[in-house]
Amino acid sequence: MATISHSDTVFASASVRGIEFCNLQGTGFTGFGDIIDRVRRHPQARPGMIMLTVRNSSQGWSHTRAFYLTA
Questions:
Q1: What residues contact 31, with CB distance under 8 A and at least 6 apart?
Q2: Beta sheet of 19-26, edge-to-edge order
Q3: How confident is the model at residue 1, as a pLDDT?
Q4: Which of 71, 48, 61 is nearest to 10 (CA)?
Protein backbone atom coordinates (compact mmCIF):
# COMPACT_ATOMS: atom_id res chain seq x y z
CA MET A 1 0.00 0.00 0.00
CA ALA A 2 1.25 3.48 -0.86
CA THR A 3 2.16 5.65 2.09
CA ILE A 4 2.34 9.39 2.57
CA SER A 5 4.94 10.98 4.82
CA HIS A 6 4.53 14.45 6.32
CA SER A 7 7.39 15.82 4.18
CA ASP A 8 6.23 14.29 0.84
CA THR A 9 5.08 16.55 -1.98
CA VAL A 10 1.56 15.44 -2.86
CA PHE A 11 -0.76 16.42 -5.72
CA ALA A 12 -4.43 15.40 -5.50
CA SER A 13 -7.51 16.01 -7.63
CA ALA A 14 -11.12 15.07 -6.98
CA SER A 15 -13.95 14.81 -9.48
CA VAL A 16 -17.65 13.97 -9.55
CA ARG A 17 -19.07 12.55 -12.81
CA GLY A 18 -15.88 13.51 -14.59
CA ILE A 19 -15.98 17.16 -13.47
CA GLU A 20 -12.97 18.14 -11.42
CA PHE A 21 -13.87 20.29 -8.41
CA CYS A 22 -10.84 20.17 -6.14
CA ASN A 23 -7.06 20.36 -6.62
CA LEU A 24 -4.67 20.06 -3.71
CA GLN A 25 -0.91 20.26 -3.70
CA GLY A 26 1.78 20.62 -1.11
CA THR A 27 3.35 18.96 1.89
CA GLY A 28 2.07 18.23 5.38
CA PHE A 29 -0.46 15.54 4.48
CA THR A 30 -0.39 12.61 6.91
CA GLY A 31 -2.26 10.06 4.77
CA PHE A 32 -5.23 9.42 2.50
CA GLY A 33 -7.63 10.23 5.34
CA ASP A 34 -6.16 13.71 5.62
CA ILE A 35 -6.62 14.32 1.88
CA ILE A 36 -10.20 12.99 1.94
CA ASP A 37 -11.02 15.32 4.85
CA ARG A 38 -9.75 18.29 2.83
CA VAL A 39 -11.86 17.20 -0.17
CA ARG A 40 -14.98 16.90 2.05
CA ARG A 41 -14.47 20.46 3.33
CA HIS A 42 -13.99 21.92 -0.15
CA PRO A 43 -16.70 24.54 -0.93
CA GLN A 44 -17.70 22.81 -4.19
CA ALA A 45 -17.93 19.31 -2.68
CA ARG A 46 -21.32 17.67 -3.08
CA PRO A 47 -22.75 14.23 -2.30
CA GLY A 48 -21.90 11.51 -4.80
CA MET A 49 -19.22 9.14 -6.00
CA ILE A 50 -15.87 10.91 -5.84
CA MET A 51 -12.86 9.85 -7.87
CA LEU A 52 -9.71 10.89 -6.03
CA THR A 53 -6.34 10.76 -7.78
CA VAL A 54 -3.29 11.23 -5.58
CA ARG A 55 0.29 11.53 -6.87
CA ASN A 56 3.20 11.45 -4.47
CA SER A 57 6.10 12.95 -6.40
CA SER A 58 8.53 12.39 -3.52
CA GLN A 59 8.03 8.61 -3.55
CA GLY A 60 7.14 8.26 -7.25
CA TRP A 61 3.66 6.74 -7.18
CA SER A 62 0.12 7.61 -8.23
CA HIS A 63 -3.11 6.06 -6.99
CA THR A 64 -6.81 6.51 -7.79
CA ARG A 65 -9.57 5.74 -5.29
CA ALA A 66 -13.32 6.02 -5.42
CA PHE A 67 -15.40 6.88 -2.38
CA TYR A 68 -18.95 7.99 -1.74
CA LEU A 69 -19.37 11.42 -0.18
CA THR A 70 -22.57 11.85 1.81
CA ALA A 71 -24.27 15.10 2.78
A1: 3, 4
A2: 19-26, 10-16, 48-56, 61-69
A3: 56
A4: 61
Residue count (the chain): 71
Q: What contacts 14, CB < 8 A, 6 or more positions away?
A: 20, 21, 22, 39, 42, 45, 50, 51, 52, 53
DSSP percent split of the chain into helix, strand, coil, nearest 5: 15, 45, 40
pTM metric for this prediction: 0.88
pLDDT for 2 beyond 70: yes
Handedness of CA 2, 67, 32, 59 (dihedral sign): positive
